[in-house]
Amino acid sequence: MAPLGVAPSCSVVRPPFGGQSWRWMDMAGTLAEKVWESHVVRRGEGEPDLLYIDLHLLHEVTSPQAFDGLRLSGRPVRRRDLTLATEDHNVPTTPGPITDPVSRTQVETLRRNCVEFGVRLYPMGDAEQGIVHVVGPQLGLTQPGMTIVCGDSHTSTHGAFGALAFGIGTSEVEHVLATQTLPLTPFRTMAITVDGELAPGVTAKDIVLSVIAKIGTGGGQGYVLEFRGSAIRALSMEARMTVCNMSIEAGARAGMIAPDETTFAYLEGRDHAPSGADWDAALEAWRLLRSDDDAVFDDEVVLDAASLTPFVTWGTNPGQGAPLGSAVPDPELMPDENDKAAARRALEYMGLAPGTPLRDVHVDTVFLGSCTNGRIEDLRAAAEVVSGRRVADGVRMLVVPGSARVRLQAESEGLHEVFTAAGAEWRLPGCSMCLGMNPDQLAPGERSASTSNRNFEGRQGKGGRTHLVSPLVAAATAVRGTLSSPSDLEDVTEAIA
Amino acid sequence: MDAFTSHTGIGVPLRRSNVDTDQIIPAEYLKRVSRSGFEDGLFAAWRRDETFVLNDPSYAAGSVLVAGPDFGTGSSREHAVWALMNYGFRVVISSRFADIFRGNSGKQGLLTAQCRQDDVELLWKLLENHPGTSVTVDLVSRTVTAGDLVASFEVDDYTRWRLLEGLDDISLTLRHKGLITAYESSRPRWRPRVTA
Q1: Chain B residue with minimal CA distance to A84?
Q2: Residues in A touching B156 (Cβ below 8 Å)
Q3: Residue pairs spanning A and B at CB distance below 8 A
Q4: What is the pLDDT of residue A456?
Q5: DSSP strand E in A408-471: where?
Q6: pLDDT tens digits along B43-70
Q7: Whole-model pTM?
Q8: What are phi and psi of B183, to 5 degrees?
Q9: Residues of chain B positioned with their CB less than 8 A from the CB of A61
Q10: Angle, nearest 10°, between helix axes B99-108 and A170-179?
C-alpha cells in the first residue's frame, strides 16, 4: 500500500466541525451542507471526506456480495444497531412461497447473512416487512439531520425528513457494514423552489415529474436537490417522500426538504422516535436544521405550483414527460440532436405516434404501488377515485401496498374492499411491478400506467411500455382505460344511473 | 483491486444517450449472489437485436465502450459494473456519467473516462468506419488515443490515484478506526437505533 501522502492535493481543506456531531446551529450554509459537515469523521488533503452513516438499510438484491466480502476478509458488521434489513425486491405479492428458485436463493442468502452477522431482518410475512424506503420512515427510524444509505438508488426518499440519504453500490454497502462510514466527495447544491398553490388533482408526483422534465435526467448530476417553497411546505410527509424519492431520476444523488412542524408531527410517537427528554432535545436541534436565508446554492430552479397540471411520461426515461392534456411530442421538432435521437427511439419502443393526444393512449395494466407511491395516502387517494366505479374492461389494476403496515391500515379503513369491488387486485406488499423481479410483470407490448419511478425499456417486463403517473391519474386511467385524470370521469351518481 | 495504468483494446461505439443501468443489466439478471457470471445479462434486451453493435464480430471482443451522454443512470446496481467487467470491458468513455455508476466503477477498477461530446462523436465515426480499431486509454496522461485521434479525458484525482495504486477503500478507512470511535462518542443519544 502506498502512503496516503502520495494522494493528489487539493487547494482548500477545512477542518471537520469540532467533533460535534449535530451542532449544526453553529454552522452556516445550506441544509445539505450542514448535515454533511456534522458527519465528517475525517477530512484529509486531496481526499474525499469520511462521513459517518447514521442508518444503513439493506435488502436482498444488493447485499449478498457485500456480506461475502466481509466473510472473505474476516470483518464483522461494525454497528448492528444501525443496520436493518428487509425483503422487498423479489417477494411475490400473492400468498405462498417464492417459486422462482433464483429469487428464493437470494432471499435465503439474506436470511443466512443476517443470522450470521447479527443484523435485524423483517422477512416476508413479518408485520414490519415492506419496501425498504417505506419501512424506515414508518418505524420512525428516518429522522432529520441523519445520514442514511442503502444499496438502492431510491434511498433519496428519506430526504423528505431533512436527512441526507442516498443510494450506494454493493462495494459501498460492504464499506458501511465494515466501518459505518463512507468516503465521499462533496455534492453541489441545487434549490428547487416551488411556490404557490397546486390546483385540485395535481400532486407531489406531478411536481417531481415536471421538475425532471424541466432539468432532464442528467440535470441533477452531482447535486443534492433541496425542495422548498410554499407548495413544498404544504405537502404531507408522504407527498414529500414522493418528491424526494424521484430526485435520483433527475440524476441527483439526494433530495432534501427542511424539517418543520409537519415532519415533527409525523415522527412523534413512532416506534423509534425519541421520547421524553430525548424528544425535547431532538426537537430543539431539529428546529434549527434548515438552509440559512443567505445560503448560496450552486444552482436554482423555480417552478410555479399554480401552473402545474397532471403530468405523465410518454418516453423511456423519466425526463420524457408532458402534461396529460398535451400530445405525444414530435422528435423532429426537438432542437438537441441527442434528445431527438432518444425521442425517436423512445416513440418506436413505446409504439406511439407524434401528435397523439395523451388522453387517447390506451393501457392494459395499472400499477398502484412502489416506494414512490405505495403509502397509505396514495392508496386513499386512488380508492376515492375508483370508489363506486369499475376498472374498464380489458384493464387489470394491481394495488400493491408499500408495506405490511400500509396494507393493514388500508384494510382497517376498508380500502381493499373499494379496490376489489371496482375489479382491482389487492396484493401483498413489495416492490412488485416497479421492476418486475417477482412474477408481477408486463408482457411484451403491454402498456401500463404506473405510479412507480422508472419508465426504462423493459423495466416492468421485457417489451413492456410504461407511463409514469400519479395515483390519481392511475386510478382514473384504470376506470377509463386511457390515460386520464379524475376530472375526466363522469360523476359517480351519473355513472351508476 | 488490480492497479490500472493504461489499457489498449477494441473500441465499441454505442451510439445511445441515457444508457440506464436497467439496459446495462435488466433486473431479471440481478438474482445471483456472486460477483461473477453477469456477462450473460449485459445489454440483454439489446443483444437480442442482431444489428446491435456487440453482435457484430468486429466488436464482440471489445474492451473500451464509447457511449452517449448520461451513461449509467437509474438504479444503483453495481451489477452493471460487474456485467461490463465480466464481459471484458475495462473502460467506458462518455461525456457524462451518472454519479452512482461512476462511483461503483471506481470501486471495481472500471475506468469511467469523461471526454468532450465532440471527441465522443469523432471516436464513434472512427470506430464505425474502421471496425476493430484499437483504443488506448492512458490513466497517467489522461488521454485516449485511437488512430490519429488523441483526446484528453477527465477523471477525479482521488479515483485516479486509487486506480493507479490499486487501493482498496475499506483498508484505507480502517486506518482511521480511532477517529470513527471518537466520532461515535459525540453522537447524540437520541439518534435512533434499530435494536435496543
Answers
A1: B194
A2: 185
A3: 229
A4: 97
A5: 425-426, 447-450, 465-468
A6: 999 999 999 999 999 999 999 999 999 9
A7: 0.93
A8: -60, -45
A9: 30-31, 77
A10: 70
Grid cell locating A232: 413544498
Q: Are A113 and A121 in contact (CB under 8 A)?
A: no
Please report which confidence band the pLDDT of residue A28 belongs to, taking 50, 70 and 90 as the band edges.
Answer: confident
How far is residue A281's CA from residue A293's CA, in Å, rounded to a whole number? 24
- A283 φ, ψ (degrees, to nearest 5): -60, -40
- The answer to whether the CB of A153 falls within 8 A of the CB of B74 is yes
Would you call A225 helix, strand, or coil by DSSP?
strand
Residue A458 three-state SS: coil
Angle B63-B165-A149 from CA coordinates, rounded to 5°:
80
Query: What's the mean per-residue pLDDT of chain A?
Result: 94
Give kind and range of the element (H or E) at residue A99.
Answer: none
Chain B environment of A459 (Cβ under 8 Å): 22, 27
Residues 218-247 on A with a CB inside 8 Å of B are 218, 221-222
Mapped to the 3 state alphabet, what secondary structure does A301-357 carry? EEEEHHHCCCEEECCCCCCCEEECCCECCCHHHCCCHHHHHHHHHHHHHHCCCCCCE
Q: What confidence score (pLDDT) does residue A91 get?
A: 96
Q: A31 phi and psi, to 5 degrees?
A: -50, -50
A47 CB within 8 Å of a chain B CB: yes
CA gap B34, B41 in Å, rounded: 14
* 8 Å CB contact between A162 and A261: no
CB atoms within 10 A of CB A349: 16
